[in-house]
């Protein structure tokens, strides 16, 4: 998924998927939400610098934090094992601190959108994996909204089952790596507008 983001961004720009006000992001697919708004021109450099600042801040809390979509999107990888007990969909109390660093983003729904994307390994059939990851992603969404005391208009959860492994599912260690939550922090239209106007800090 991450390797495809640059291609997706280019496609989004060519299709005219720019920053738009009033777009209901909950109706977009994961691919669409990752691709837009496309950022180009003079907005690109300041926005990339801003997102690098977010990446550096989150890197103090997480081991695996990187930039994607040519530096426009921050991706945080959290092992499923710290959030959920095996085969369970109820968020562990000990897992909640891993999600709290993202709460501040919910206060700025026109600046950022959060895409919690839950993955599994290849254990179990497709139906089980899809249901497990969808329910886990929903649990993350519900926690974020409850903790922030907000409706979560800028959060869209996705459960993608076992369709996007980071490594082959050929060992216990590799399967554990594939069971993960990826949280994508994607700029929204107001952040892009601020970058264009030179007001982005």
Number of strands: 5
Please identify which CATH superfamily we are dealing with: OmpA-like domain
- The percent of residues in helical segments reads 25-40%
Terminus-to-terminus distance: 29 Å
Which architecture name does CATH use?
2-Layer Sandwich
List the total number of helices: 7
Major beta sheet summary:
5 strands, mixed
Structural class: alpha+beta
In short:
The chain is of the alpha+beta class and 201 residues long. The model is unreliable at 3-19 (pLDDT under 50). It contains seven helices and five strands, in the order αααββαβαβαβα.
List keywords for this structure.
201 residues; alpha+beta; 60s Ribosomal Protein L30, Chain: A; five-stranded mixed sheet; 5 strands; globular; disordered N terminus
Report on this model:
With 201 residues, the chain is α+β, with helices and mostly antiparallel strands. It has one domain: OmpA-like domain (60s Ribosomal Protein L30, Chain: A, 2-Layer Sandwich). It contains seven helices and five strands. A five-stranded mixed beta sheet has the order 1-2-5-3-4. Helix 5 links the parallel strand 3 and strand 4. 35% of the residues are buried.
